[in-house]
Design brief:
Elements lengths: L2 H15 L3 H4 L6 H16 L4 H10 L6 H17 L1 H13 L3
Helix pairs in contact: 1-3, 1-6, 3-5, 4-5, 5-6
Length: 100
Amino acid sequence: MKYKLFKKYIQKILEHMEISHADLFDKSKKKSMVEARQLLYYLCHNRGMGATEIKDYMFREGHSLEHTTILYGINAMEDVIANDPDLEKIAEDIQGAVEV
């Protein structure tokens, strides 16, 4: 239902993090890739998407993961943003730049 919004978040994250679409959806556990995916979950969650919906959209992009991974990522990103004003600003900028 909000797939268009999901795709817009992807584009903005790719631009901000200076990574490729393939990098974002790779199974890499490299910190920057994990952080980018968790930021995507966090932004989507803040726009009312549930973990199941995010999981379905991730699968459409070729990345399968567990529901619990998304929930963990959302919580982890909330903690990171609470302690990192730069990342908080990035999240705000992305949210502000994405319109439905």
